[in-house]
Fold this protein.
Amino acid sequence: MKTAKKNRLATAAVLGAVLMAGSAVAPAMADDASRGGQDVQGQPGSDSSKGQGGQGETSKHVLLLSVDGLHQKDLDSYVKNHPTSALASLVNHGTSYTHAQTPVPSDSFPGMVGQLTGGNPGTTGVYYDDTFNRALLPAGTTDCKNTAPGAEVAFTEAADKNQNSLDAGQGLPGLPGSILNMTGQPGSLLDPAALPVDPASCKPVYPHQYLKVNTVFEVAKSAGLTTAWSDKHPAYEILNGPSGKGLDDLFTPEINSKAAAPFTGDWTQDNAATQQYDGYKVQAVLNEIDGKDHSGTKTAAVPGIFGMNFQAVSTAQKLPTSDGLTGGYLQGGTVPGPLLSKALDFVNASVGKFESALAASGHAKDTTVILSAKHGQSPMDSSTLTRVPDSAIIDGLNAAWKSTHQGSADLVAFSTDDDIMQLWLSDHSQAAAQFAKDYLAAHSAAGNDVSGAAKTVTTSGLSKVYAGSEVANYFGTKTSDERYPDILGIAQTGVVYTGGKAKIAEHGGASADDRDVPLVISGANDEHARTVTSAVETTQIAPTILKTLGLDPNKLQAVQIEGTKALPQR
């Protein structure tokens, strides 16, 4: 979930020539280990290639579950302490890929897009949910010939017609109880005036039009399968893919809307509220298993690909306290605290409902369940936490730039900072990027620790900074790509860029806590637990879904570009 402050600074007149997009190449951070060999451990004498979705075997349905914030360590601990749980059942009758990692940045948008396209940001063009594009025009532009390029691309709650309403502005009576009646085509709930504008057509750019490659939903649709998904903003209509038609049924209640009484704030600010919110999506999936659309009011084919993401674990990791319980982890990040334990129990109970519904509907034998996460959360050990307001860093950088470049505008045109730093600059030159890199490396930053005590970090809280062409190389894209940030800063362990003291963890970065997520595949014919210990990526979920359904993974454009392989044989 995205709650960190983002800087939106004026940019229009200061940007130079438009850089048109180049074709993406395989991301630099994806190494051969994640695409090649395997180490499979299973029952003595078992054939690791067998099982639903294994060689020569297919399923009719794939249920994908993303438990945002869930780490591999969390799943290991839960299964150990709850050996008869629904999550333990998935692990004990499936294959666990215990060294799976998300893309970088480990944000919700690139994380989910990666799972469903097979591509990393340099290929998909999706670097975060809120970014900047040097070629597009600002939202609301009508005079496209005389407007300078450079625009925020905010595919968040900010794109809704009404971000304060759970139905994003549809106008349903009786909310929140009526939310399952929300449309399954939420693109209609996006405000065109809040979307960036294409200079060629002078029309708003919708999320699905922004995605550079196709999705598993589009491939499944072309094969005659029904598709469905449930997520946290209408902007997740990006998963429709470039055709705009990949999903038959997309349920996206707005998580950052005002929560219903007795809760205050949005649904993320109280973990019990988040669980209530997640419960709506759980019911949508149960309705789909039962042969209905997400609302439960219309008959529909059980989707070939469907699923949802959970937010309850993520908010339980972020909130210092909620519902009278302490958030985050105990004992140096090794043990889930009481709030997080409760959230894990909620997810486990929901998975149990899915398993029961599949059995009752007769689909347990033809459905493969995949459990993973869009991202982890950092830091797990709150003693390493340093909350750093990014505004002071950016103000200092802008002042330093102006002092040596008389008459210049602010150097930072836009930033997205969570436990990663991404800066888009008004001067898209290598020299300007190097200036910013040098400044960030030379200055300390003030922050506060988990108790609120003052704490100072060196080098702006960053362990490594990439500038200009270095960023393009990191993401495996061309310098002509108009989307990648000019500065990519990898945060020091425990650093979270946020004002105040309202959170104790965040995601988006490149640390193990951000990226080390579970990946479990449990098919109907999987009788024993198997473990694959070689490094894999969550982008490999996409070709694996298609392979499991008996479809061709090479129908995915990102698979062709990056050579993304299906997960090692089970």
